[in-house]
Amino acid sequence: MIHKAKDLSPEQKVAIESLLGRRVLEEEAVSVRAIEPPALSDSRRQEIVDSLKHYFAEVDASRKHVSAEEAEETITDASKCTRPHYAPHQ
User: Fold this and answer.
1) How far is CA 16 from CA 8, 10, 20, in A?
2) What is the pTM of this model?
3) Considering just the CA atoms, what is the radius of gyration of the chain in Å?
4) Which of 5, 8, 51, 67 fits 28 for a cystine, CB–CB 3.0-4.6 Å?
5) CA gap 36, 17 in Å, rounded
6) Could you give the dihedral angle defined by the CA atoms of residues 42, 46, 47 and 53, in that order, rounded to the nearest 10 degrees?
7) Angle at 88 between CA 87 and CA 90, to 5 degrees
8) Strand partners, 30
9) How many Å apart are CA 52 and CA 56, to the nearest integer?
């Protein structure tokens, strides 16, 4: 079901904004859907974890080395691009 943001109760609007991580504009429409995640066996889950660890180890091995400050600045800049009201935790 789709709802117009202007028709949401204040409580509903707060809950949705909390999930989205941003303000919901009056002219927006909102749809919420619950899905059941696929069942994964413990062995399949471990395969996925191992695969991701291997992938990120390869990425880390080939990346340019930068200072912690440069890395943090890059992450902050990317966060600001995707979340206009982002403020880093200090």
Assistant:
1) 10, 10, 6
2) 0.43
3) 20
4) 5
5) 22
6) 160
7) 125
8) 3
9) 6
**Which residue shows structure tokens 């009056």?**
26
Neighbouring residues of 32: CB distance < 8 A, sequence distance ≥ 6: 16
Tell me the one-letter amino acid at 8.
Answer: L
Q: Is the C-alpha dihedral spanning 28, 15, 82, 49 positive or negative?
A: negative
The per-residue DSSP string of 27-65 comes to: T-EEE----PPPP--HHHHHHHHHHHHHHHHHHHHHSPP
pLDDT of res. 38: 85
The Cα-based distances of 10 to 15, 81, 90 in angstroms read 9, 28, 30
For 31-76, the pLDDT digits (tens) are 988 999 889 999 999 999 999 999 999 998 988 888 989 988 998 8
Q: CA 5, CA 14: separation in Å to the nearest integer?
A: 11
